[in-house]
Design a protein that fits this description.
The protein has about 325 residues and is mainly α. It has 14 helices and no strands. Helix 8 packs antiparallel against helix 9 and helix 9 runs parallel beside helix 14.
């Protein structure tokens, strides 16, 4: 009887230790998310104060930043201060070395290519699902604000756009989300880490049109990192997803809506075929390729999710992200 009581007490102690560790991780991740949201929506305040002090009219500042090439350049610069720096600081607060948290190794050769082939089409699938979800929200009166992004059409502008929308998000957001956040949460179970890192990824975009899309995309990217044991897989998939989006935008600008629609359908068909071939090859090489191993944690999954989501900073991040998404975009 004494051994049973001792075992029960030890299990209870381990549950409390793990609970505290999850809450601490959630608190730090949520705080970093709040920093990102704060910079995202209030960076213009110090700029306006400085330009006002210098006697520059507000209209002139607004016109300057409205220029497509300036807007894209600003987006690229902001990515460094808004995402990279906060999550780099978060990584430094961990006891583990960054290289131990994030796998920068070459992806597993055997499954990486078929996995990329399999998942590359999911951006389109998730996009269609998100469109349906947003249509449902509109039927109940929750219409999301339109996000109008003007793309520069000169050569330099196109290069800057590719850097700002394709290259930098693929590198920086993957370092932050599938690197720092996913890596720091995997000790609590891969399934838990996939969902929670994807939630933070969605909230970070703070747009009702983007939160569900980026959450679901984040799940795919996180699975890819875990199964190939390398962050570079998600970097590639992220770049493919954003790159296709930019390519279709410019296709519409230069060749019109109708021609772009035809090209887009052809590309989707090719990617679906590629995805089917990828699944066949992937499952042939490794039947367990898409299986996520169960966690060995002492707390159940529901408890772990509750500890994470009910963290004060995560709750604040959820509220602010949705609020900003509806009111400020």
């Amino acid at each position: 009887m004494q051994d049973i009581n001792t075992t029960g007490e030890m299990t209870k102690t381990l549950e409390i230790i793990e609970k505290r560790a999850i809450k601490k991780a959630a608190l730090k991740i949520g705080f970093t998310l709040l920093v990102v949201l704060g910079v995202m929506f209030f960076w213009s305040v110090p700029v306006l104060l400085i330009t006002s002090f210098m006697g520059i009219p507000f209209e002139a500042v607004e016109t300057f930043f409205a220029e497509p090439i300036i807007n894209m350049s600003l987006q690229a610069v902001m990515m460094l201060f808004m995402v990279l720096l906060p999550f780099l600081i978060l990584a430094k607060t961990e006891k583990e070395n960054i290289s131990n948290t994030i796998s920068f190794a070459r992806p597993k050769k055997r499954i990486t290519l078929p996995l990329i082939m399999t998942t590359a089409v999911y951006g389109f699938i998730i996009g269609n699902f998100t469109s349906v979800l947003l249509s449902i929200l509109e039927t109940i009166g929750l219409k999301a604000p339109e996000i109008d992004m003007v793309y520069p059409t000169d050569f330099l502008g196109i290069v800057i756009t590719v850097i700002a929308v394709v290259v930098m998000p693929s590198l920086i957001e993957e370092f932050a989300m599938r690197g720092v956040v996913l890596g720091s949460l995997r000790r609590f179970g891969d399934g838990f880490a996939i969902i929670c890192s994807s939630l933070v990824f969605g909230l970070m975009h703070a747009s009702i049109t983007q939160i569900p899309y980026t959450f679901l995309l984040g799940v795919v990217l996180a699975v890819a990192v875990i199964k190939t044991e390398s962050i570079w897989t998600s970097v590639i998939l992220h770049a493919i997803n954003n790159g296709l989006s930019v390519a279709f935008e410019y296709c519409e600008i230069f060749y019109g809506v109708q021609n772009t629609y035809i090209i887009e359908q052809i590309v989707i068909c090719i990617m679906i075929i590629t995805s089917i071939i990828g699944i066949v090859i992937l499952l042939k090489r490794d039947p367990q390729a898409l299986k996520i191993e169960p966690s060995n944690t002492v707390n159940g999954e529901k408890k772990k999710f509750r500890y994470f989501i009910l963290s004060p900073t995560i709750i604040a991040g959820i509220i602010l992200s949705i609020l900003f998404g509806f009111l400020l975009r």
